[in-house]
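Example record

The entry below shows one chain as it appears in the dataset: sequence first, then structure tokens.
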Amino acid sequence: IKESKESGTELIGQFGVGFYAAFMVADEVTLVTKKAGTTQATSWHSEGTGQYTIEDVEKDSHGTEITLHLKDDADKYLEEYQIRQIIKKYSDFLEYPIAMDITREETPKDEEGKDIEGADPEVIVTEEVLNSQKAIWTRGKSDITEDEHAEFYKHLSSDWTAPLESIHYHAEGATEFKSLLYIPSKAPQDMLNPMEAKGVHLYVKRIFIMDDCKKLLPEYMRFVRGVVDSSDLPLNVSREILQEDKLISRIEKNLVKKVLDTLKIMKKKNYEKYVSFYNEFGSMLKEGLHSDFSNKEKLQELVIFESTATEAGSYVALKDYVERMPEAQEEIYYITGTNRTAVENSPHLEVFKKKGYEVLYLTDAIDEWVVQGLTEYDGKKLQSVAKGDVDFDDQSEEDKKKEEEQFKTPLESIQKLLDENVKEVRFSSRLTDSPCCLVADEYAMGANMERIFKAMNQEVPVQKRILELNKEHVLVKSLLALAESGENAVRLNDFSELLYDQALLTEGSPVVNPVKFAQRVTDLMVSAVK
């Protein structure tokens, strides 16, 4: 401060919030300033009562001095450790050195360097610079080494690993700011604890304002760490001001674009590195498809999925999926579930595998919300293989009507027995090997979404799904014959409920009555043994 060449009026405007905070610990604040090239100095004095005085005073040299008269209960702010901590947190990167006189007592030593017994300690006063002044984000991109990036990233994030990618960005023009952002190699532990999140730090003219400034990047980019330093924001900016400040919105828009562009380049030029990023943060990135509609097109080019055509751990982008679609395929097919193992053996996939239609595996919980925001890509509708009616049947309309009439009675009989849990019983064109599966209506809640809500202790309304039967399966043929005959109602009821329970298990849902299910299976096994 002593080296400042600014006027007192300019300083008061910049440090107004600091003076306000000063009266939390001080009875009086006095500022004496003299601008370079002038002969007169000015004094500003206040006792925190809402009044202040300004008068002309004498001062030998230019610069500014601020004196705080601390309250009796604020003497901790005179402790060396406390001063060091404050400077380190708020002013470590100021380009001007912040020095403090450090007083130490040392025992006098003789010519051999040994302590002189009985000698009074000597008081040594040295001036020590407390701030590092190493704001590497102000330097050119090519001037920063990988080691310096790693060291600075670890300082910011408390992460012990080096960052996966650094983003060095200076904006000029209507909005001026400097930023240095990092994409971690691994998901930081503080991401699981929002109270300890490091996020992106906001600085104004190198002075620390706040860490984890959530207005600088949207929630789905919470994995980013780094620094943003604005020269346009006022030093007394508050969290409330940030909520409304248009400059912050412009900064956010610029940063989001830069992060997305960086990921796009990484995906194109270093795909393995991108997959490494996606394995850690892909689920967060996908949140943007549901929330950031202005960047939807960019985000849909960044998301990748496992599928029926990829090995475990390998992915396909939507663009590649569309390019290799068979000519007859009109929609992008997907299936949701808890993991790859749960979905890759689903009976819902049978006809799609037979026809050579690739099906995306959406196994992140967030994917259920993703498909609500990403309903189509490149003019192709996204369609769940476990919802709606799939018509891959080669039958003519006339043959279908004859079949419906022929099996109307047995299907209605089975429907009546399962009416408490099943909305409809119908023949399926998506099954080739399995006897049955459960299907949700086009816009109804699916089984996976239902499981997610229940895991969150959310109340879920009763979801009646459609039981589809494979009319070519021997078990279904036998069941239809039994229903057609009208004989042995008890056996028909047991078989119908067993079939329904089997459909629940194959979709990953629990059976309605496990004890009864086990007993029925046991009875069937006993009958088979006999």
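Notes for this example: The chain has 18 helices and 20 strands. The two ends are 98 Å apart (CA to CA).
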